Amino acid sequence: MKRIIxxxxxxxxxxxxxxxxxxxxxxxxxxKRSSLYSILISHHKAQFAPEIENVFFDIPIPDKFNNHxxxxxxxxxxxxxxxxxxxxxFLQQNNVARHLVARWFNRNPKTGCCDMSLITERGLYNASxxxxxxxxxSQRGFGILADAGEQLIGNTFVIVNDIRYNDRSKGAxxxxxxxxxxxxxxxxxxxLGDLGDLISEGAAAIISSIKGFGVTVTTYLYRxxxxxxxxxxxxxxxxxxxxxxxxxxxxAFDDSDSFRLNYIGKKSVTSGNLTVASGxxxxxxxxxxxxxxxxxxxxxxxxxxxxxxxxxxxxxHSVEPEITAHVGLKEGVTxxxxxxxxxxxxxxxxxxxxxxxxxxxxxKGKIWDNRYMATEENTTGSTxxxxxxxxxxxxxxxxxxxxxxxxxx
Length: 409
Fold this sequence. Notes:
2 domains; alpha+beta; 6-stranded mixed β-sheet
C-alpha cells in the first residue's frame, strides 16, 4: 500500500522516480532539495585573501542542495571586522531576498514577467498539470502552490562564509611571500612556469609552510522568509505571466521591501592540518581549495545539527544486498549517527508531509569518504561509492525513501 501511495505521488507530480533498484540512479536526482546561495566575505588586506577568494569560485555548492547562487559570490569587507548585524545589513541593503525570489520565478527584470518552470523542475511537478490545476483553482491546485512555497521557496538558505587564514608556520609568513616578489620566483608552484633549480632554502620553507595551511571559517546562516502573507502579496501584487503587461506590478516588485532573510545562527570551524598524500603532485591552489571546501562542509554540518530546518534529506539508493545512500563524510556521517527513514505522503489538504517509517545506522568500515579530494588522497573509504546502513527499526524499505539525521544531545 505504501508503494502505491508513493507511486501515485510520483505520477501526479510528473516525476520519473521509480521504486526499483534498477532505476536507483534516477532516484538520486529526483527529490526535493533545499536551495542554497553561498557567499564569501573577503578581507583584501588579510593574509592569503586573494588565494582564498580565487579558490572559492571553484568550490561547488554541496550536491545535496540546489544551486541558487546569484551573480555576486564575493563581498569585500573594508576592515577586518565581521559580525551578524553588518552582514544582515548588507543583505538587506542589497535586496538579496528579493533577488532570490526573482530567481525562483525566472523573473525578467525589464518586463517583470515570471514563469513557474524552475518550481516545476525542482518540485518534480508536471508543468501542464500544475497550470491546469491552478487555472481551475482546485483544492489540489492550491495545495501544489502552497507545497511549492513551503517545500521549495521557503527552504531557500543563504550561507555567508568568513574565511580567515591561520598562520601556523614556524618559518616564513606565507601570505606576505605569496603576495610579494617571491611569487615570481615560485612561479611553477602556481602554474606560472618551471621552477627548475631556483628552489632555495627560503622557498623550501615557504612550501613547508603552505603544507601547514589552515583556515577558520565562520558561516552565517539565513533563511528566506516565505509564508502565506508573503506568497499572497507576491502572487497578487507582483506576479506577471508571460502574456501580461502591467507596469505598476513590475515597478511594485522592484520597490518592494516585503521580502526578507531571517538570521538563523552561525558556526565557526577550524580546519585540521593540511596533508599531502605521498606520490601526489603538490599544487598550492588545490591544497588551499581543499582546506576551504572541507572547512565550509564542516560548518554546514555543524549548522545542520543545531538547526533541524537546515538538515538535508538523502534518498535511499538501494536496499539489496544492503541499504545504501549517496552520503558520507562530507555530510558528517559517522558510525554513531542514526537516521530516520521518511516516506512522503499527502495530508488532507493536499500538501506533502514526511512520515517516519524506520531508523537506520551507518555500518562501521562502510562509510564513504566523499570529501573534496579524498579520491586523490586515496583515503580510507574513498573507493566506496555510497555508505551502507543497517536497519535499526522499521518495515520493508525501498529506493526513494528519504534519510534524515536524527538530532542527538
